[in-house]
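Researcher: Here's the sequence for the chain we discussed earlier.
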Amino acid sequence: MRLFAKYFLCAALVISVALLFSGYRLITYSYENAVRRETERAVRQYQYDKFTVQAALIPKPDDLMETLRGLAPDLSVSGLSAFFAEDRSLLYSNLPAEPDTAILDGVRADAVINRIQTVDGRSYIFVCGQITQSGVTVYMAAATDMSSVTGQKDEMVRGFVSVYFTTLGISAAVILILCEFLTRPVMRINRAAKRIARGRYNERLPVSRGDEIGELAGSFNMMAEAVEEKITALSENARQKEDFTANFAHELKTPLTSIIGYADMLYQKALPPEQVRDAAWYILNEGLRLEALSLKLMDLIVLNRQDFVLEEMPAEELLADIAGGLKPVLEERKVGLRVAAGPAYIKADYDLIKTLLLNLIDNALKAGCNQIEIEGKVSGGRYCVSIADNGRGIPASELTRITEAFYMVDKSRSRKQHGAGLGLALAARIAEIHGGALEFASREGVGTVVKISFICAAGGDEDE
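Model: Thanks. This is the structure I predict for it:
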């Protein structure tokens, strides 16, 4: 059952019971007062009639019974009356029906009895007492018609029934309006809850009341805000996990290609011991880097960690190491690579900086170039690295968006080359950790140049 119906039925029931109880008490009180007044009047009239009868019997003390039978019709007794002998035999009666002698039960010399009885469908008040004269006792019963009181009660009942249903009808209409007013805020909260359930987590309720409904609306808003924050956190967590999975899969490609290339070289060719050692070193180096990289990518993407320890390392050795690792990939794609690195020590995280530079070179390969040039030199107290290719270039309108996650300049070609649009977004974050930023310059059909600078740790002459 809906709350509206419960409010309505409860209020209607309370009003109905209250009206019935009030009407019953009012009618009963009025009727009892009327009966009490009629009874008092009947007792007074009985006393008066009793004195009248006694006065009439004083001159005739002999044979009181016969005297009473003869005088009774002529006595000035008001209303209806009956006389009984001491043995309760009827001496005289002008009642509409023969009275029941049971009304004499309990009559004593010092007390009168009054009772209400119905005779032939009419209600009477019977007042009974004893009359003792010359040692002879008779009973006298006086009856007063109180049908008017009963009729008045019946009229009050009929009037109350009319008032009851009229009041109940008006009350029902008022209750309907009040129930609508009371349940409307609850229905608003219910509709807002449904909208939140459908995904509108920014749904809020206006709080304009100071009562319990206003407190409920405020609590609802607090709950909705907590739900929105939780959903946002869960969505961000899921996105971070997806980013990590996609980035890690993306970063596996280049080192795995190097590992597979050097392993194939060892398997297919009989190489001198020095080349075998170099190939094994590259395989070992790339394997260890992948192991460390998985944890660092987790910290970077999922935990949003920014406080990586930057160690001093020789920039020229880092670039030479990258060039050596790319040798199988470049030979397979027939791409030339020229490295010109000036000596300097930079502050960097080896695994992350190598991931950044490999991403930039990977994008150059995807651009269809056949020549890549890597240059490193000290300038303005920083070590600047530029990677230039002669690929297809990037449209000027796309340059400001290429570091956005999942953004791809040529979507069809990127999908064919298994790209996800994550490489440059990750590279931009790594550059930020190293205190720098990626700078792009490109011309369609000519090629692209990407520059990034690192903090110089010590040594190195500045190039002019």
